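User: Some background: our group keeps a shared notebook of sequences we're curious about, and every so often someone picks one and asks for a predicted structure to add to the entry. Today it's my turn. The entry only has the sequence so far, pasted here. Could you supply the structure so I can complete it?
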Amino acid sequence: MAKVLFVASESAPFIKSGGLGEVIYSLSKEMRNIDIDAAVILPKYSEIPFNYQNGMKKLNAFNVNVGWRNQYCGIEYLEHEGVPFYFVDNEYYFKRSGMYGHYDEAERFAFFCRAVIESLEYIDFMPDIIHCHDWQTGMIAPMLRIDYPKYNGIKTIFTIHNLYYQGVFPKEILEDLLGFDESAFNISGLEFYGGVSFMKGGLNYSDIITTVSQNYAEEIKTPLYGERLDDILRAKSNILFGIENGIDYNRYNPAHDTAIYQKYDGKTINLKVNNKISLQKELGLNADAEAPMIGMVTRLVKQKGIDILLARLEEIIKKNLQIVILGTGDKHYEDMLYEIKTVYPKKISVNIMFADRLARKIYAASDIFLMPSLFEPCGLGQMIASKYGTVPIVRETGGLKDTVIPYNEYTREGTGFSFKNYNPGELSDIIDYAIKFYHDKKVWKTIMQSAMRLDNSWQKSSDKYKKLYEKVMGEK
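Assistant: Of course. Here's the predicted structure to add to the notebook entry:
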């Protein structure tokens, strides 16, 4: 049985900022269901809820070199739902408000990467494979290769969840934080346009590279989506694999979801409208069961298409529909949405927060789920919405293209609607097109039920990961 250590900067249920945290939690559980001995190691953030922190057991403590610094590191342990979780404890680095965005991100995650490797002597888990996720873990493979020859039997897999965020810092961190000499500062190593890139470290030193959808794996090999790393990704095509994320149907299922107002399934889908009526009352919208409700649970950033939505939002609102938005992000987007809400308080609800229960209510209540993303490596929202019978409208990019089948009015097949070009006109047109079918209740019910029948579970994806693990272990 392969032993795989997942390394990530976040994981539900302890702490998460978005899809990465969901994926680590769900994937680690699923891997254990298919006879992969999976464990997870995370930073011990102070914002992890007390009930989890109180249940952690301290295993050991030691010091970790961060360049010339010698820093304390504690390792704590908690088993949750059958998955072993290890936590790297250092209050100087992780006892802060918020997981990301601090002035010393390079130092924090240089410490975390080296602490993960050093911890292998102190935990009862020696992995065959270290599976790293996103830039915060990108230095693990270089550190293993350069500084830890005793672990040269451990294979590394690096998963890109979003290539846009790369962890690029000044050259000075090479020696000052990482403890590397100039030999690592080259185009085949860590050098990136004069700086040092954690992401590039993961790409250049890992045995296998994966990303979170097949379409995104192709897109990032092009200059348009490659974020100046497309040449490396093209060169590494033979070890680059796209594997779609999944969702945990034990958590996201309207038949069992206790957060929503009215439970329902594919056979009782007519009950779904009760969720809309209840949410309209809760959010102060016009009580109108017939008005199509468009939901968005999203980060309010350009990547998510907020700019092209805002360009036509007033025009869209003036139609006989409602919009419910939940999320946080760039302040200028938040302010613009609030301003529009003050003009149309009965037609748009703007909720600048992260609230899991409200998110589930939006998935259950909405008729349409909107994801007009500029780019989207995989996306979970469209998969969750589909399970709730909420028809997705997406732009044809990344995992959105892989997971939404555009409705064909001639064959009457499809699970949602999509548009190709990133512009406000196409977004407005596809909303109009979808609403035309919304008013044909028989057709719309068919689309809803087709979406609900999609299999976006982790089972298919976990089987692909298992084959990759077997492949890379066969190369030992």
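Suggested note for the entry: The first strand starts at residue 3 and ends at 7. The first helix runs from residue 19 to 33.
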